[in-house]
Amino acid sequence: MSGGSTLPVVNALTDASFTVWTPVVAEKKRTGSSRKEVERPTALIPGIVFAQADRLHDLIVMSRAPALTHRRYNRDTGRMELRGCPAFSVFRDQGHYPLISDAQLEALRRAEWKGRSRKAEHVFHPNDQVRCDQTSYAGMVGVVSRVSKKRVRVLWPEALHEWEFDACDLIPVAQAA
Questions:
Q1: Which residues, at least 6 apart from 172, have a Cβ–Cβ distance to it below 8 Å?
Q2: How far apart are CA 141 and CA 137, in angstroms?
Q3: Which pLDDT tens digit goes with each residue over 22-49?
Q4: Measured distance CA(175)–CA(90) in Å, rounded
Q5: What's the rounded Cα separation, in Å, for the pair 28 and 112?
Q6: What are phi and psi of 6, to 5 degrees?
Q7: Residues 29, 40: contact at Cβ < 8 Å?
Q8: Are 41 and 131 in contact, with CB atoms under 8 Å apart?
Q9: In the structure, what pLDDT confidence band is assigned to residue 121 with cuts at 50, 70 and 90?
Q10: Rounded to 5, what percent of the chain is helix, strand, coil?
Q11: Residue 145 in contact with residue 160, Cβ under 8 Å?
Q12: pTM for this model (two decimals)
């Protein structure tokens, strides 16, 4: 697959009920005659999509099909419809399909986290449980004690003290799980 078709392949495979992921970062580009700056999602590794191994056979069959289509139920019309997918292939190494563990993808997940848009993605309230994947608090669950415009003060029960973070560096525990 070409680098430009990475995100369309992810969307098509997700529509076909595959569990897939590719690291995505927000890239700033200037567009139009006014040269207005806009953020667009861009694949961190163009041409690479990771899929869950439980449906590897179905993925191989779909990649070898002469017309890359899949059936999907449309709730609006109440019918099954054929959807298209950009051309892709499944990586093989010496005749085998390599399996990659989640632990091996952790560095890519961190790179994706660092390259994300710096906008606050969630509005926090006092007593919300949050997690920070950065700094020495990675993996710990804290409780929001105070909220200002862009800063959130978090109480870490394990450390018995409060620390202040940018709102965009925190993840609600409900989303983090």
A1: 122, 124, 128, 129, 130, 131
A2: 8
A3: 998 888 888 888 888 888 888 889 999 9
A4: 30
A5: 15
A6: -60, -55
A7: yes
A8: no
A9: low
A10: 25, 35, 40
A11: no
A12: 0.59
